[in-house]
What does this fold into?
Amino acid sequence: MTVSELLRVEHLTMEFGGLVAIEDLSFSAAQGEITAIIGPNGAGKTTVFNCLTGFYKPTVGRLTFSVLGRDPVYLERMEGFRIARAGVARTFQNIRLFPAMSVLENLIVAQHNELMRASLFSVAGLLGLSRYRDAESGAVKFASQWLERIGLLPDADRQAGELPYGDQRRLEIARAMCSKPTLLCLDEPAAGLNRNESAALNKLLRNICDTYGIGILLIEHDMSVVMNISDHIVVLDYGKKISDGSPVSVRHDPRVIRAYLGEEAECDPGAVEPGLSC
Amino acid sequence: MANQSSLGLEKLRASAVLKEAGLASLVALVLALPLIGFRTVGGGDGLSFEFRWEALVVSVVIVFLGRSLVTAMHGVWRLNRFSLPGFQRFGSVIERRQVLLILGIIVLALLFPLMPEVDRRAVDLATLVLIYVMLGWGLNIVVGLAGLLDLGYVAFYAVGAYTFALLGTVYDWSFWGCLPIAGAVAAMFGILLGYPVLRLRGDYLAIVTLGFGEIIRVVLTNWVALSGGPNGIAGIPRPTLFGLEFTRRTREGHSFHEYFDLPFSGDHRIIFLYYVILILALITNIFVLRIRKLPIGRAWEALREDEIACRSLGINPVNTKLSAFALGAMFGGFAGAFFASRNGFISPESFTFIESAIVLSIVVLGGMGSQIGVVLAAAAIVLLPEALREFSEYRMLVFGLAMVLVMVWRPRGLLAHRRPTLMLNPSRPIAPK
It folds into this structure.
């Protein structure tokens, strides 16, 4: 199987004043694979995301994003919205929908750049040219396909803010997908979901990854999600990478067990249900 | 049984009310003693005190009665403060019959000057209302849609007015030729002023825009060579109807009454001005309604909701905000040019902070983002002081009271319901679960 590298992080270091949040982190994520970043609280996982998506400028490091057939771009030099345009979409730990707008509108806003071009920067739209109307109905169609997929089609015209929590999580993923990314970064997508919802999420993510062949980068605490669907896991502790590899190898890595359970703990990795107590 | 308990409740409430009112009147007594109770009288041998016991007693009694009334009502109000039945129904009726209502208002507005009992003053007043409606609609782009609290909107109004006043008096350009220029110059200023403040949000943005509004006014007051300083600019050309002037005699060409063979009347110009601003305002409205449904309009609203999420979806926040600033300013500029042309004279006096505050309160009172709300609020804010002309000393008091009442009953504005710009099933009502 040939996997092409989508994102390569090299020597990423992020300092806030004297505090080193990430120290010399290198890893890569491949197209068509789910890469999970795990680690105890405060390990710097979300900071990695914020560096990748342009919310922070890394102190040191190179973030190369290379889509097949296009020139590689260096994310550390780009503004956040340009990174998104280059094909990196993300969701947030604390959901960030547009709460007063309808569910459908949330997905249409995600297709902003395409529609903006179709509307010739609003001129064609103001004149009501068919060029824009076609593009808009195309966008609505695309959005409704996603709504159907996440089971929110009947709620399309409701306010996004009044949806139940689990639906909001899925809507945020759908919104990120509506921007047609090549790399989808999900910050704790299973947080606050119950067992069923989290199983449905697993299916959805696996499905996205296989259908669209895009790469998914995932921060997650829920080990059932991480172990079941990831192809590749990167473990962080205090801003440093302590393990990197397949779920099986990470699960048995003594450093990972130490990071999660502490130095003293006597824990036979084979005997413990992965992720539940370790 | 039930009767008895409710009576008990009644009694309990009465004693609480009396206690509350007693406390309030005690405070009033303490405050009123030095403020109202004494008065200095100039006599033969210097100042002496005079005690005004009657005034003191009257003020304390007023506070006592007022406070008991408010406390007694409070229990009733609290139950349905947010669902005051009349208001709620009012809002939903307007929502449902929107198209009919808009058509009705437009027809009424078109026929208004032709109605028999409408005199010159009424048409003039309606023109003033429409100027504020237009300003409100323009500011609605910035505040209501993009969520950028702009306290210096009057700056763009002033820029538009002075652009036309200068072009009109110095180069003799006509109103219609200058109108787009005034809008463009105002939009340019919108971008110029908007650029440095883009990183600011909320209160900080409000303060900086307030400062910009004042800067423009101060520059206009002091740059005498350009703007005539506090003396302003007079003799600004009036708008013409395809070259027909509204004067008794013209230097060249025809005037309106000659062309149509009517007896000369000053009312023609007033009525014409009314129609000009009506058309300008309607254009503004159509523009705002349309652009709200375009990607840029949705991006404004998305930016208002969550800027970080916008950036993560590839929306350029700088350009999006600047376009909101520029378009809002452009309509301010149009309205300014019209204002200059209508008055024939402008000075920095007309562009003080209070104008920004009035336009902002129109937008907020009407319900942010609501177009009809702006009309209602503009009418209320302009007409209320007119209606209260006899009690002119209490005008601001009543004005403030009205604002407080709206904020208590409709904290999100008179008409704050937001309709999605795009619907999958437009026919089906959205049932909140």
Residues 119 and 125 of chain A are 5 Å apart (CA to CA). Residues 269-278 of chain A have pLDDT under 50 and may be disordered.
